[in-house]
Amino acid sequence: MFKNRKIRVGPRGGKYILRGGQKVYLSGGKGCSKYRSSKDPKCNDQEGCKWVKGQGCKSTGSAPAKSQKKEFRAVSRTPTKRTWLGGVVDIEKAKYIKTTAKKVKQAIEQLIEDTLFGATYSRPVKVSVKPYKNTKYFEIHVELEDDDDIQHAVDHYFDEDQHNQYSVIKNLFPSSVAIEIVDPYLNYGLKKSVTVKKAQQKMEEILQDVYAKKEKPTEKPKMVCDGNKCRRVPTKKKEAATKNSTPKKGKKKSAKKKDGRLSAREYVEKYGGEEGDVCDVRNNGELKCLLFRENKNKSKSPYWSKLDAPKAREVMACRQGKSCRK
After folding, report:
1. Inter-axis angle of helices 101-115 and 150-159, to 10 degrees?
2. Tens digit of pLDDT for each residue in 98-149?
3. Residues 33-85: pLDDT tens digits?
4. Quick one: DSSP state of residue 210?
5. What count of other Cβ atoms lies within 10 Å of the Cβ of residue 141?
C-alpha cells in the first residue's frame, strides 16, 4: 500500500507519509491530518482533533515545551566553583574592549596555567566563557575539582596581580590589556552571591577608579589691582621637597588595601613581609598566612593562604599564631 512512499517523522515523533498533500500517520502522533471536515469520520468528532479553516485537521495537543536556558542572574563562588562577570580593559584607553569569548577563555586558562606551573595537580580546572547579553562583559564559569590550595592559584591573577597579566596573555591581544572580574568575596568580602546588576556597577567603578586618568584641576590666576590698573598674577607652585629637607613626622602609611583587604604584594614591599607571617587580612578575625608561589618566569609572587591549606601546613611559622608586621 505504501510502496515507494517516503516515510517522514512528525514533530511528536510519529511516522507519516504524504497522500494527496495530506499527512497520513503510520505510528505515533495524533494522526488528525487524515480526517476531513464533512466526510465521515469527521475531524471534529475525533478526540484531540480540530478542523482549522485553510489548514485542515489539526491536533489540539500542545507542542512539547522547549527547555529554557538558565539565566545568568548573579555572581557567586563556592570552594570548587566561580561564577564571575568579567571584561577586558584596554589599559591605555581606559575602556572595555569588544573581543570574543574564545579569546577570554584562552586568556584565563593561560593565567591559571602560569600560576600552577611546576605544581603537581592531577585534577583539571574547567573554564567556560560566553558573552553577557549585548554588553562588552562576559559570563565566566571556573570549575575546579580540588578545593584546597588550588583555589588561591585560580584567584591569584584576579585578586591583586592584574598588572602582571599582560606578560602572560600578550599573544592574544594587540594592545596592553587586563582582565577584570567581579567576585563576591574578592570585591565585597561576602560569601553570598551578588546580583549581576550590582556587578555591572562594580565593573564601571573599577574602570573609573583604577584605569581612568584623572586630570588635576588648574588653578585660576589671581587678579591684583594697583590703583586703576589690574593684572593677573599666576598662583605659586608648591616647592618640591629638597634632599636636605626633613620629612614631617607622622604615622607610616599602611599597606595598600583593595576593597578593604591587605594586599600581599604591598605588605612585602612596604613592611618587609616574609613567608610564614600571619595576618588578619580583612579585619574580620580570619587569619591568613603569607606564602610565595614560583611563576613560570621563575619570579616569586606573594599571596595569602588559608591556615589549613596543604602548603600552609608545611610552613612551621604559619602554625605559630598571629605575627603580622603591620
Report:
1. 120
2. 999 999 999 998 888 877 765 545 557 889 999 999 999 999 999 887 666 5
3. 778 888 888 888 887 788 888 888 877 765 445 555 678 999 999 888 999 99
4. I
5. 15
Task: Look at the chain and count its residues.
Answer: 326
CA distances from 312 to 112, 154, 220, 289, 318 (A): 20, 17, 57, 7, 6
Q: Which residues pair with 182 in a beta bridge?
A: 85
298-324 pLDDT, tens digit per residue, is 778 888 888 877 787 788 778 777 778
288 in Cβ contact with 315 (< 8 Å): no
Residue 28, CB-side half-sphere exposure with 13 Å CA sphere: 11
At 255 the pLDDT is 45
Cα(151)–Cα(224) distance, rounded to whole angstroms?
64
Asked if 87 and 95 touch (Cβ cutoff 8 Å), the reply is no
The enclosing H or E element of 311 equals helix 310-314
Query: Within a 13 Å sphere around the CA of 79, how many CA atoms are in the beta-carbon half?
Result: 7
pTM above 0.85, yes or no: no
Cα 326 from chain centroid?
A: 31
Q: What phi and psi, each to the nearest 5 degrees, are found at residue 271? A: -115, 0
The answer to whether the beta carbons of residues 289 and 278 sit under 8 Å apart is: yes
Q: How far apart are CA 271 and CA 74, in angstroms?
A: 37
Helix (H, G, I), strand (E, B) or coil at 196: helix
